[in-house]
Amino acid sequence: MSVVLLREHTLYFLATNVPTTTIFWSFDNNTNDLYGVYNGQTINGPSYVSPGYVGYGSAIVLNGSLSQSVTVFTPYLNFAFRSLTIEAWIYPLVLSGDNDLFGQCQCNTCTDKCLFFILRNSCLYMGFYSDNLQGNTALRTYSWWHVAFVYDYSSAQQTVYINGIQDGTRSGGPYLGTTGNITIGTSNIQSPYNFFQGYIDQFSVTNRAKSALEILDDATLVAHYSFDSGSLLDQGPNGINGTGFGITTVTGRVNESLAFSLAGTAYFQGSGFTALAAANQSYSFSLWINPSSFNSTIVHLSSLSWSLSLMVLMANGQLVGQSWNGSLVRVTGPVLLSNIWTHVAETYSSTNGLRLYINGTIYNSTGSFYYAASTLPNYVTLANYNNGSNSTTFGPFQGTLDEFYIYSRELNSSDISVLANP
């Protein structure tokens, strides 16, 4: 089925079966498009750093002082009279003047014929030339940021986002350019050109206007493991696939789940969680649990010699959420029953501290505290643990687990309710 749109004397078709992601550059030691169409060529020898934002593969390193960038010469991608979404993870090393992220330009002195997405005076700045939007939040160097620019052709609305939060919006006409190469790390909006200095990872261009909720999830849904059909693949935006040992697939709370029954050795683990490594970083996780025994570790976080059991079951079946501020911070929950499904969620922010939710309803909280994180990419382990500096003695988990979500934001009660009522 197709939808016909008529706008400004331009007739075109949007087929419902057209893939939504037009381009995706992972920058895992190359500049190829995931779909093999819009492959880039490096200019002036950029390098790569490993790990990138997602903790595996790599990110491209651009040295602005050497005019390093990436160009897609062919095929041409038509953005004129269309909606689009541009997203990337960036790690700026320098923020002064203009630091250009993306461009396609037919004429840099012609209204609406030079598309650009840059940082100007540390803030997001985008537009089509003389039809531009300035963001409000100043970015900092030496931190990962998710940045997004959305143009909705149907509503003539430009919007920029930082870490999933809207940072500016305005009405504006469409892009009119009909020629020009795609550039990453520079644009043609100024002469001489300006360049980005830092790391770029997970760069995507989508041929539609993503919703605010989609952008929020792209920025803050770190991973989602459904465990359906025994899959250990991440169904979130980052592709942080897991591994496991001693697990079987059984009927779950939602479709299928993982059963951990090989006493002492069974586990599920994902690695490369950069989003959970920053001090005072908000986070949330949720899952369905069905224990067959107690005194066990449910969710464990670790990096080298640093480790923390985020959620445990005491010997009497009491659920406890944990975090770290130089010593253990605990939020206590109810006593769970064996062989019964319970939805549990734990959230953290520096303002609210730990909050523990049971079956979609807040049960207990700690109040504010400083989260002393590992500062390095983490492993997340279910049903077992790694020894480390902050470890506490709880055994391996036995039972079943389902629908594991990890977020780099504090979920609110409405978010938790949705997860608890699939």
CATH class value of the largest domain: Mainly Beta
Mean pLDDT: 92
| Class of secondary structure makeup | mainly beta
Q: In which range does the helix fraction lie? A: under 10%
- The end-to-end distance, rounded to whole angstroms, is 29 Å
What CATH calls the topology of the largest domain is Jelly Rolls
* Beta-strand residue fraction: over 45%
What's the CATH architecture name of the largest domain? Sandwich
Q: Describe the largest sheet.
A: 8 strands, antiparallel
Overall tally of domains: 2
Number of helices: 2
State Rg: 23 Å
Shape: elongated
Number of strands: 32
Low-confidence parts: 1-19
Short recap of the structure:
The protein has helices at residues 212-220, 413-420; strands at residues 2-7, 10-15, 21-25, 41-43, 47-49, 59-62, 69-72, 84-92, 98-105, 114-120, 123-127, 132-134, 145-152, 157-162, 165-171, 182-184, 198-206, 221-225, 243-245, 247-251, 256-260, 267-273, 283-291, 296-303, 306-313, 318-324, 328-335, 342-349, 353-358, 361-365, 378-382, 399-407. With 422 residues, the protein is mostly beta strands. It has two domains: 2-210, Jelly Rolls (Sandwich), CATH 2.60.120.200; 222-420, Sandwich (Jelly Rolls).
Account of the protein in words:
The chain is mainly beta and 422 residues long. The chain folds into two domains: 2-210, Jelly Rolls (Sandwich), CATH 2.60.120.200; 222-420, Jelly Rolls (Sandwich), CATH 2.60.120. The protein is built from two helices and 32 strands. The protein has helices at residues 212-220, 413-420, and strands spanning 2-7, 10-15, 21-25, 41-43, 47-49, 59-62, 69-72, 84-92, 98-105, 114-120, 123-127, 132-134, 145-152, 157-162, 165-171, 182-184, 198-206, 221-225, 243-245, 247-251, 256-260, 267-273, 283-291, 296-303, 306-313, 318-324, 328-335, 342-349, 353-358, 361-365, 378-382, 399-407. The strands form five sheets. Strands 3, 5, 6, 8, 13, 14, 15 and 17 form an eight-stranded antiparallel beta sheet that branches. Strands 18, 20, 21, 23, 28, 29, 30 and 32 form an eight-stranded antiparallel beta sheet that branches. A hairpin with a 4-residue loop joins strand 13 (145-152) and strand 14 (157-162). The radius of gyration is 23 Å and the shape is elongated. The model is unreliable at 1-19 (pLDDT under 50).
